[in-house]
Design a protein that fits this description.
- Helices cover 34% and strands 20% of the residues.
- It is α/β, with parallel strands linked by helices and 545 residues long.
- The chain has 4 domains: 138 residues, Alpha-D-Glucose-1,6-Bisphosphate, Chain A, domain 3 (3-Layer(aba) Sandwich), CATH 3.40.120; 80 residues, Alpha-D-Glucose-1,6-Bisphosphate, Chain A, domain 3 (3-Layer(aba) Sandwich); 82 residues, Alpha-D-phosphohexomutase, C-terminal domain (TATA-Binding Protein, 2-Layer Sandwich); 94 residues, no CATH class.
- β25 and β26 form a beta hairpin.
- α13 crosses α14.
- The C terminus is likely disordered.
Length: 545
Amino acid sequence: EKIDCFKAYDIRGLVPAELDEELAYWIGQAWAARFKPRCLAVGHDIRLSGPALSQALIKGLMTAGVDVLDIGLCGTEEIYFAAANLEVDGGVIITASHNPADYNGMKLVRKGARPISGDSGLRDIERLTAARRPLKAARPGSYATINPRSDYIKHLLNYINPPDLQPLTIVANCGNGCAGPILDLLEEHLPLKFIKLQQQPDGHFPNGVPNPLLPENRAATAEAVISQQADLGLAWDGDCDRCFFFDEQGRFIEGYYMVGLLAQAVLSKNPGAKIIHDPRLTWNTIELVRQAGGKAIMSKTGHAFIKERMRQEDAVYGGEMSAHHYFRDFAYCDSGMIPWLMICGLISQSGRSLSSLIAPRLEAFPVSGEINSSVDDPEAAIARVKKRFTAGGRLDYTDGLSVEFSDYRFNIRKSNTEPVLRLNVESRHNKDLLREKTEALLKEIRQVKGEPMQAEKITINDNGTLNVPNQPIIPFIEGDGIGPDIWAAASKVLDAAVAKAYKGERQISWLETFAGDKAHDKTGEWMPAATFDTITTISSPSRGR
């Protein structure tokens, strides 16, 4: 029997409709039946349903005779650390990462923090959960609360030498998630000045669910970096296993470029080591790894695949463009804390700003950013792309379809969970070619026939940005600043939609006139570029894997 909240890599669902305390109890029973653990570590993130789900799971485990060490409120990586370093047979974190507030879920790991995903036991746990066969031990498991955080902090500090750090000013947006308490403990050991935003853990999410991948969630961090003249900005998701970077000018740095920087930092201490990367965007990472004397190896996207490949290759670091960064010394797991510590070390050591470290890479390998397209038949769309865009290219099927030419490459892959295709394109030093190929690929994927946009599908966010569902007429490109150049293609169609979304209060013409850094509105007045950007930001509601 299929249970809706069991996904490919973890458990995630709406509370209580898809995941409730009763189901959590039976998941505990099923885990005990499948893996027969002696002792497990359990924790939960800031979500309000976390403590109750955690206690129900613990009850299921203890009834089956499993001893439980309860860490309580913690980040995902603290469970990884516990599973790798304590005398336990695995661990679980109750979290739904960046999903909406009324969701929750579980990430399960075995001893050594090895992930339990679809083919490594999660399907078995689903089957046993559905069967609901009681497992009652003669002796119930024991229960103890623990706090392994001081050892975890000590471990994190091994990745840098605190006395070597410059006294950098850092804006740290904890998103009311799990990052705040960890940051407080690290701060005592570091010569850094932190300006903390949304620092208190709060499952009510007073500032929205923390997901810095969404452009509309970045403004607070970016503005604080500029106003405080900080050296860099950091933002985390709710369970703080992903860290996002802003340079000293408040610009968001795509995760792809951070993979290359972190690979360099790791290789400076581990010459000749292997680096694992995902297939979506690759050229920048491969070039930097080679320059640093390392060996770049491509793996299928997804934490279970990256971790497995890292173990096979004994790779020292693995990075995904989705801001998951994995470290051999951290049990091959992803961490949202190690990356920023290493980047602070890199900035201090080089004496260069984050923007100056990144700028040459943006120029060398401009990217489209990940563009999601809702399609009725993903396989047919991939077949169309393959027929039209692969002649003379080098094909790779590590994850979806990657096609590489001398001057540009692209990857197109299906979502694991929805009828969506994800496209990534990159070029060598050529934004015009990038734009041309991205638009052509999107046209083929979406079979553009010029249908008009339906105004009622546009929604407006509280901060003034527009959310427009993926429509064939809008080849929106996020990331490298080429988005404004293609507004013209959508302007006529969107004029009426924008007017409707604003209910006539302010009718912005979509690029009715665009000149340099100014835009023209219906009243004939010129608006500064910042105003224009805020009003006309389109973002896809679908993000991440």
